[in-house]
Amino acid sequence: MRPSAALTAACTLALLLGAASADARQARKVGRGASLHQGLLMLDTHLDTPASLALPGWSIMAAHDVKTDYTQVDLPRMKRGGLDGGFWAIYTPQGPLDAVSTRKARDYALMRASAIREMVAAHPESFALADRAADAARIKAQGRRVVYLSIENAWPLGDDPTLLQAFHAMGVRMAGFAHFRANQFADSSTDAEKWGGLSPAGIQLLAEMNRLGVVPDLSHSSDKALDEALRLSKSPIILSHSGCRAVFDHPRNIDDSHLRALAAKGGVIQINSVYVKAHARNPEREAATKALEEKYPEDRRLTLAEYAAMLAEKRAIDRRFPERDRATFDDVMANLLHAIKVAGVDHVGIGLDWDGGGGVAGLEDVADLPRITAALLKAGYSRADVQKIWSGNVLRVLAAAEAAAGKS
């Protein structure tokens, strides 16, 4: 039997109203999620952005495009993504362990620390140095971005762990031991074993961190070094930018047994966006990238013309040898959700390695960070859980380091 025109119209209207109601509910949900995200205190524990400060003509205050200059963090994008700051890394690429090279590394690290402080001094309305865990919330309330300093690779300390005091005075509140190669303090997760974990100097350095209230960072260090740090440290350990070996079996990542051990001692793993999935080898791209890095090394001050040439050469590599099977936002979330499942929501955070190799499809720069909050809420985590992940857990670890300072 054919329905009447009036009945058809009524049904159509009901469907339209129902769809509109569903759309309205979804809009309110998205709005609440966006509002919640911006209201959180959001910290990333591994910002390699200080490297950008040395680029000619580059400004932290200006909006940049990752597709144009490959940088991922600046103030406008921090505001768009809701990132309140974090730990700005004093990164030094590992070099020879002779005295001359190590002294150069010391000076390089001190200059990078100075560059971070100069950024804050030049823009006091937008950035503020943080010394203690309690400072972060206060700085956010002032509408400024939080700047803790961290050390990635302790090689610049040479043969004197007490040199950490000078960096602590400059604002360092987190420090790692090694990078891609073993050094005088620890074995690296990506190099042949030299010490069987921490060296004697590394054990002294750990004690100095505990004395000063610096959080020990075991990202990049070997599993045995992590074992020793967990056994010896007077305060909890952090992995400032690591992933899960159960998701991607890579030595830079951590297995489930170490995740549980880290959590048992009150520590946290901060999930990165680099080692999140296996990639097919791309030898031509790898060779071209290595040659470019050797031509423009990390410690070389570029002229404006050299910087333009470097960018042009990098874009040429992208055109000739594009990335294959690139990692995605879902791969990052797989690592994050696995870490929460194994270690617990009190022991996981975010350290995406921005401006240091991080970034995946769908999570290109800090402007994309609201996607993480939305995914966590969709997975069933509460606002309180999400706040722990974004900053609560790392600030708890920093507060514990402060409390332990001077007691060892």
Descriptive terms for the model:
2 domains, TIM Barrel, 9 strands, 47% helix, alpha/beta, disordered N terminus, globular, 408 residues, single chain, 14 helices
Detailed description of the structure:
- It comes from Novosphingobium cyanobacteriorum.
- InterPro entries: Metal_Hydrolase, Pept_M19.
- With 408 residues, the chain is of the alpha/beta class.
- The chain is built from 14 helices and nine strands.
- The protein has helices at 5-39, 66-69, 75-81, 99-122, 135-141, 164-169, 200-212, 223-232, 256-264, 283-295, 304-320, 329-343, 370-378, 383-404, and strands at residues 44-47, 85-91, 127-129, 145-152, 172-176, 215-217, 238-242, 268-271, 348-350.
- Strand 3, helix 5 (135-141) and strand 4 (145-152) form a beta-alpha-beta unit.
- The longest helix is centred in the N-terminal third of the chain and has 35 residues, at 5-39.
- It is globular, with a radius of gyration of 23 Å.
- The N and C termini lie far apart (87 Å).
Helix/strand layout:
Elements: H1 5-39, E1 44-47, H2 66-69, H3 75-81, E2 85-91, H4 99-122, E3 127-129, H5 135-141, E4 145-152, H6 164-169, E5 172-176, H7 200-212, E6 215-217, H8 223-232, E7 238-242, H9 256-264, E8 268-271, H10 283-295, H11 304-320, H12 329-343, E9 348-350, H13 370-378, H14 383-404
Parallel strand pairs: 1-2, 2-4, 3-4, 4-5, 5-6, 7-8, 8-9
